[in-house]
Amino acid sequence: MAEENKENPESLSRRKFLRNTGFTVGGLAVGGVLGSLLPRKKEEKVAPATKAENFNQALMYFTPEQFQLTEAATERIFPEEESGPGAKALGVAFFIDHQLAGDWGFNAREYMQAPFFKGEKVQGYQGRLRRRDIFDIGLRELQNHSMTVHKKKFTELKEEEQDAILRDFEEDKVNLTTISPSGFFQMLRSATLEGAYSDPLYGGNRNMDGWKMRNYPGSQMAYTDIIDKDFKKINPQSLKNHLNH
Amino acid sequence: MARKLPKVDVVIIGVGWAGGIIASELTKKGLKVVGLERGKERKTEDYFMVHDELRYALRYGMMQDLSKETITFRGNERIRALPMRQYGSFLLGDGLGGSGVHWNGQTFRFLPYDFEIYSKTVERYGKNKIPAGMTLQDWGITYDELEPYYDKFEKLTGISGEENPLAGKRSNDYPTPPMKKSPPLQMFEEATKKLKLHPYMMPSANLSESYTNPDGIKRAACQYCGYCERFGCEYGAKADPVVTVIPVANKTGNFEIRTHSNVRRILKSGNKVTGVIYTDVTTGEDIEQPADIVVLTSYVFNNIRLLLMSNVGKPYEPQSGKGVIGKNYAYQVIKGNAVGFFEDKEFNTFAGAGSLGMVLDDYNGDNFDHSKVNFIHGGMVSLSQTGMRPIQNNPVPGGKPTWGKEFKEKSVKYANRFLSVAAQGSSMPFKHHFLDLDPSYKDAYGDPLIRITFDFENQDRQLAKFLASKCEDILKEMGADHIDAMKDLGPYDITTYQSTHNTGGVIMGDDPSTSAVNNYLQMWDVDNLFVVGASAFPHNSGYNPTDTVGALAYRAAEGIIKYHDKGGQVS
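Above: the input entities. Below: the structure tokens describing the complete assembly.
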């Protein structure tokens, strides 16, 4: 194990990269990022954060009920099991909440101009609703469907019952006029994977546990030492790590 | 009224690979060039936080803002084209360097067959081999004529590679040796050699070692960080216009780049163009930039859109087959591939580079006998290791389930235990595949969007099936425990990512009635307008297009200088 630690992640640091590739201050032909990579003196290194509260875990968009529903539904999509934590422990519902509050929730960089027509499946999404509207409706309908079938809230159902409710959405077995149930389900599924595996800066993938679970090293500066070798486990780094150099 | 600026020698519309190459070649000769770029400035420092899959790969951080402009699409003329509201099938570049910044760096030459595809197909198989409606044409240039320009682009970018045994002759070796051979590549090599195929290391614009190009531009070696496609390179190791040609043009003092400048019209008087009108998107002001020569170097779609909006060139009419602007839109047949799962092997596939791979061309071009298959051309087959980032790579054997406990267990288990062997199929032109202006949807300035009319044909379905089975054979030989092959192409679907290799619309040739530009990419009917890019391809080959775009840009630069000196049609 000591051997492994030695290779991680320091040995692949920017500092080593600068040495390996032979760049010096005078030879900064590429300039740019490299210029800002020059190592600071050791004592300048940012002190390791003490266990602070995670102020990121609050809601920007969801109501508490929407949050709980999202947490329960995403946990069924990506449940905790032997290989590691599920959506809830990874903070996926916080991730989705934060995403809905921004560009993604508003479809800000997508073409939303009229006229709207129902198109062929191969022509893609043609609705006028934005993702935050679709989540509002989808979550409400998830609750309604649960009440209709079981006379209980979705969060009060057994796991198998929750799965069956979600499957009804996935297979368009719920009759909705405003949104496509399967479209909502697919959006929820994609967002779950995004929350599990995106950089922790977005509020999911808590403690990089999503990456650790699948041996993904996160953001490393270089793999020149291992690219032509057999599989090697590397402790992950996040983007925050880049700022600390 | 637009504010009119003093005239310059040359105005370039769009500063990506084509615009950058032309700017550097022309300014070196002393011409005064203005480059109009509608996106923003870019530099290597921008990529400090680039290892962010969500921001760049899923939220398209480097791509064109679709809320301002997109395309519309329909499978055929009988249905209503609708806007591509969200990204899927292809990704439109944006900003300085354009798509040349977020590419993978796979830098292939097309085959000698490609440039004379009509003649060579007829010669070997007879006219009946070409199905009805396929508007196959020779390019008006041969591989041998284009070879020196390929050589120039490969030296500019420092391509790392080794000889491809089934390609056209090279005048020089690749400037740098091939990339490092990872274990999956070694497995691919061993298996394909056993199958008597001809693997070679993928020609790569991610440098295998540090390199100084003929312009004196130095770049560092690739670090195999696994963030190329959809990302910019924080090391400048991946060749892009911002770290190669643009600084060279800037250094001459003859180049002025104006970012945030969206060209709206090309101005024409008689049989010459006189300049362009653009909108400064930061102020909304319309500005006229007169020029002796106009060079259109934006992405395929805007090359055609600007010509059509400016009434330059004869628009293509699909019923009669007459006219040329918008003709022969082609794409790529990507879905013929296979994924192999390995129970007892784990790979460092989180590491990689955009063009780290091994390729074979035994099934590409006319490298095999087509008399018994129902298609022409073919595609490259490769195993590439571009970096398996976790959000987008979660296959499970059999493709199911896609959520829940079993999905999670399996997707985690196989995260580093699967390899893809993929084919990149060529795309032939058809009479009813074309680009024109959409009659109803507009961009943020009120100008019409470009409309794509395109679907896969029987040719493509046969090709995908053929290539997928070859990919499957290779994975079998590599010892995969389970293989999923995608053999059914289905209809063209704009919602799933396939390839940003859109081609055609302003095609080159040797006949003004069937092509829009000559083999210097000079418009047949407008001597002082050059239209450069993959828009010039009469069909698309079974390779990535950038090497050919680069070569044609060098050729066009030479043509522009000739025109500047002598005038008239360059020959």
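Note for the figure: Chain A touches chain B through 75 residues (CB under 8 Å).
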